[in-house]
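Sharing a chain and its predicted structure for anyone who wants a worked example. Both blocks are below, sequence first, tokens second.
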Amino acid sequence: MVLGRGTRLLAGAVITACLVLVGPSAPVGSVPAAVARDVVPNRVMTWNLCNPCKARSVDRAAEIATYAPQVIGLQEACVRDVERIRADLARHYGLRYHVAYGSVLRNWGRCGGAPWHPGAFGQAILSAAPITDVVTAEYPDGGSEDRGYMAVTTTVGGQSVRVFDTHLAQRRQEAVRAEQTRVLAAAVARHDRVIVLGDFNAVPDTPELGEMWALAADADPGCHHAPTSDCEPTTDWQSKFDYVFLRGIVALGHRVQPTPYSDHHLLLADLRNGTVHP
């Protein structure tokens, strides 16, 4: 159905009014993709894209644009896929992100490319603000597949913050993950204001996550390093594997959003401005 000019103008006015009411600090999930034109400056997100999966970049971009985070940490990310997602975010939604890659391997089966020049695979951080001081580190032992972490400095909620993005070893490799967490925690401990995004492949009360819990809190206020904590699942198999760990920062709210385009849900958090001293 084609709307008349008057109807289109009325619809546009309604959308504009809604955007004014919503504002940049509205609760997580309030920005529909059809009208997303700017990021929410205090919102962060982590998402394991699932690879190999058959999702299109335009569908992944639509999921991201629905919530328009300031910073996004991606795992299982191929460089070419992320470039397409960024292009679709800019083209269809006017959302423009800087990017840094934390690729730890080249894999033709996952990322395509020529067999003698396969695509890069690992983590990626997207930020609406410029990115500096990029660090990419591969864990000494990745387990059954190379794994690592990356870190950047960027701006969230108008303040400078160090952002980490990681993907720990696959399930049933507890000892490997424990050593990876030790390496990651040592890097995180050097900073006062830190956001750690990622897929840790472990539920909250597992011993291998102990060093992270000693440094940071989860954006989900009900989630702790204890069997009795109330942690919202972040995967299709109803386990919490994905985290937004905060050090020196407090969350205003969080959201777990299932998606048909990955076996991991989108995990988002809105953060309070200012530094919180332990």
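Comments welcome. Confidence is low (pLDDT under 50) at residues 1-27.
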